[in-house]
Amino acid sequence: MSNVADQAVEESLARCVAGDRSAFGEIVREHQSMVYSLALHFLRNPSMAEDVAQEVFLDLYRNLPAIKSGAHLRFWLRKVACHRSIDRARRRQTDGMLSLEDVPEPTTEDPSLDPLLRKKLWKLVGSLPEKPRMALVLRYQEEMELHEIAEVMEIPINTVKSSIDRALGVLREKLARSMGEVRV
Amino acid sequence: MKPLEDELHNLLRRKEPPEGFAERVAARLATKKRQSTELQRIFPLFGRPVLRWVAVAAACAITILSFVRYEHQQRMRAEAERASQEAIFALRIANEELNTALQRAQQATVQALSSPRKTKSAME
Known about the structure:
The complex is a heterodimer of chains A (184) and B (124).
Chain A: H1 3-17, H2 21-43, H3 46-63, H4 70-95, H5 115-126, H6 130-141, H7 146-153, H8 157-178
Chain B: H1 3-11, H2 21-42, H3 49-123
């Protein structure tokens, strides 16, 4: 994010801490796609993702005085969204709800992608274990560096690296096997 | 960049939440605030942080005092138990002493009753 945008967020933060509720709305609107998409790409369920994203912002409201800057806010939101999504996925497993692989992908069509490949990839990403899946989402959605992912997920950087490498290997292999002719 | 990674970038692009997301967050926030205000209305003391700490300190003090009182009662009970055991023991000893004395008295009586008869038969 640019310095200008960071400055705007910091101004909103200061106004929000001073009791301006409209400033909190600005912060939510600025970061809602990041938080919602993290939850959605990990959980693969739009209503559950929205619920988790709302909880993240409610948490943020309680912790606003502790947020020091725009960069800190982004880090904080990613971290809380990541951990809350993992918690929700675990709770869903124990509740015996819908399997990840059964959930259809979100309906935002991208004409540049082969729909068959996209569908297959979506299903395969959903079949990954939770840590590699979250690492992959942070890496490719947020374009974060390995050390940033390690900080957000609170795991060693080597674990992040090996999880992503292994996940990419699995995806390549499974895609190649199921769609032989597709370039991977 | 490799094709798979390109595909992942495209697949995992940020998406906007459904329309009205920020308003729904604001509504949930307002509900939470209302619930918290209700709670403060029911327990007005808990509205102020200082008083909250006072309440916590009071709860701690009550817990410690209850524990001390419980310990004291337990000690008193143990002492009473020991005293009653000692009293029972003393009574048992006294009982044995009395039994011994009674047996001796009975023996003396038997001897006293049998001795004149012996003397009388010796004279005859």
